[in-house]
Every structure is written in C-alpha cells, then in structure tokens.
Amino acid sequence: MRFVAEIGKLKGVLRQTELAGPGLARPENSAEHSWHLAVMALVLAEHAPAGADLGKVTAMVLLHDLVEIDAGDLFLYADAQEQERQEVAERAAADRIFAILPSDQGMQARLLWNEFMQRRTKEAKFARALDRLQPMLENLTAGGGTWQRHGITADQVLAKVELIEDGSQTLGALARELVGEAVAMGILAPAPA
Amino acid sequence: MRFVAEIGKLKGVLRQTELAGPGLARPENSAEHSWHLAVMALVLAEHAPAGADLGKVTAMVLLHDLVEIDAGDLFLYADAQEQERQEVAERAAADRIFAILPSDQGMQARLLWNEFMQRRTKEAKFARALDRLQPMLENLTAGGGTWQRHGITADQVLAKVELIEDGSQTLGALARELVGEAVAMGILAPAPA
Question: What is the pLDDT of residue A42?
Fold first, then answer.
C-alpha cells in the first residue's frame, strides 16, 4: 500500500511531450504516458516479435518510468553527458522505489526494469519500440510539438527510429512513413542540406 | 493507429478525485487513474480471487474508462437518475470508440468492457474493487479530497466498500480499516447520529 501511494507521484512528473486536443494543451505526465503505452501493447500485440510474452511487455511499460519520480524525465535528444547523469540518477531511484515493495516483488520489478533498460530480450525491444513510437504520434497530433520547440530535424528523428525497427519491423516502417508525412505536412523540418 | 491517437483524449477527461503531492494539487484524469489501477493489479495480484486471470484484469482496467472520452466521468455518489443517464451515454461511447479498432479487436475490447460493467466474473469483480479502492487512497493522501468537498460521511463510504469486499476479502477489510483511520484523523466525517 505504501508503494501504491508512492507511485501516485508519477502523475506529477512532466515530460517534454506537449499534448493537444480537448482540455489538453499541456505537457504530458509520465503516468498517463505509461498508460498509453500499455494500451498500445494490447492493441498492437500482433506487431510484437514472435513468441514475445505480452503480459511481460505490459508490466514493463507500466513500471518503466517509476524511476522518474526521483530522477525526472530527460528529453530524448539530450546529449551524452546528460544521459549518463540520468542513468546514474535512475539506478539510485530504482534502488529506493522498488525496495518499498515486499522483497520478492521488489526484486521482480527491479529485474523487469533492468531488462527494459538493457533492451536485449524481445519483450524489452518491443516495449522500448512503443516507448519511442508514442511521442512521435503525440507530436503529429500536436502539429509538431517537441520537434518544433527544439528545432529537431527529420534526420535526427530517423536516427531514433532504428530502435523502433529493432523491436518491430512493421512499427519501424510505420514510423518512417510518419516522418515522411510530418515533413510533407511542414510540421517537421527536413534534414539540413 | 487511429485508435491509438483517439484514446489520447482520455488524458483530458477529469475525474472528481483531487490529487495531492509534488507538482500536483489538481484533478486526476482518467488516463493516469487507469495506469494506477493497472499497476495495482500487478502488485496486489495476491489479493485477487483464486484462479483469476490477471492479464485480463489488467486489460480491463486499462480500457475501462475509454467510454469517458465521450461520456465524461460521473461522481461515485451521483444519484440514480444521473447514473442511468451515464450508463446510456457510456454504451453509446463504447459503440463508437471500440468500433475504431479492427473488428475482431473491437469486439474483444467491447466484450471485456461489458464484462467489467456487469461485474459477474472474478476478473471483473477484482478490477471493480481496484477501481473503487484507488480513489479512497487518493482521498487519504489528499487529506480528505472529495469526501470533504462533497460532505460525504463514513457510512456512505462504507456502503461503497461492499463492492471492494466482493472482489477481494482482504482489500475490502483494508478499505474498512482506512475508513476508520480517516474518521480518526478527522478527514472523513462520521455517520450522522
């Protein structure tokens, strides 16, 4: 119960992603982002690697951002030094937060988070692909979102699409198409000449 | 993909529940509420009825509030007439929203939602118990929350606890304890004499 109360704090962790739509026009928080990924894991299950355990994928995406309660969210396009600092902060957060659970459950949750971060198993690859695809969809809905705000160009987005392809060929292909559409719509700048 | 974009609107559906904590002090939305329930389904699995399919419970809680995109959220203590109007609106919403999915998936999601609403299977009973327990925990965190704002008394909360007991004896017993604690703390008014 202490864990259930603690994780509520994730609703207060803001992401870079800007939401659009009725009653929105505000930054997304990491709790509702995690919900969106979990529903995607349900409805896009057919795009997961053959034999992937979808229940495990769902558990991974539900828990993957809890470390941000302490570490905050880092922008996908942050530099290597910032990313390194973030990793250290997230490991410390995982130590604290998963330890609130009874020890066997805490261990299980920690292993699941480690697996997500290491991105070696098919479940982790698919979960990471969803985590990368979802903000692209939000940027499309928002007419540019973080791409515009941070001056991101199509080549930078395409470099990030490789991780989606690694988790799902079909979702990776879709993401490539979306980048093309975004450029055609004028909401994502093309690669500099 | 159209479904994935559509469901993002749930982040804009506000509930009565008032959140508290760092960066919060705002109404909860139905997307982050659904995420909270899904994590509860993971970590409170041992309190589910014997033999319950936890994957199904998780899917149910992830999808259960999508109808609120059209129908909005109704306060738990609304009167019978309002609840009846809400049911009609939610069925119409389910017709529209689940039909965005490919037909086999849409059918599956609709059956899952029907099952949740009818509360006959052990999965539905447990999912509904979580859905009722979570706002109690938020009210405790917020120092009274909707109980105070709407002048709810302990007997009214206890009447709602029966549904938790029906899904989980142990979580029901916990909820009863929490009501007692809330009264002792002075954040929930006792039953009128």
Answer: 97
Q: What is the mean pLDDT of chain A?
A: 95
- In chain A, which residues have their Cβ closer than 8 Å to the Cβ of B63? 39, 42
Q: Check CB contact under 8 Å for A1 and B34.
A: no
3-state secondary structure A36-95: HHHHHHHHCHHHCCCCCCHHHHHHHHHHCCCCHHHHCCCCCCCCHHHHHHHHHHHHHHHH
Give, as one character, the DSSP assignment of residue B121: S
How large is the C-alpha radius of gyration of chain B?
A: 17
User: Count of A–B CB contacts within 8 Å?
Assistant: 124
Task: Determine the residue of chain A that is closest to B32 in CA distance.
Answer: A32
**In A, which residues are within 8 Å of B19 by CB distance?**
8, 11-12
Structure tokens that stand for A63 in this block = 């828990």
Whether A62 sits inside 8 A of B42 (CB atoms) is yes
Please give the C-alpha separations between residue A101 and each of A66, A193, B41, B139, in angstroms, as whole numbers.
Answer: 13, 52, 14, 22
Q: How confident is the model at residue B42 (pLDDT cuts 50, 70, 90)?
A: very high
pLDDT-derived band of residue B23, with 50, 70 and 90 as boundaries?
Answer: confident
Tell me which H or E stretch contains A16.
Answer: strand A14-18
The minimal CB distance from B43 to the residues A3, A9, A54 is found for A3
Which pLDDT score is estimated for B168? 97
Q: Cα separation of A110 and A3, whole Å?
A: 14
**pTM given for the model:** 0.95
Predicted pLDDT of residue B22: 77
Question: Can you read off the two tokens belonging to residue A87?
Answer: 């990793």
pLDDT-above-70 percentage for chain A = 100
Which range in A76-80, B9-13, B19-23 is most confidently predicted, on average pLDDT? B9-13
Residues in chain A within 8 Å Cβ distance of B32? 10-11, 29, 31-32, 35
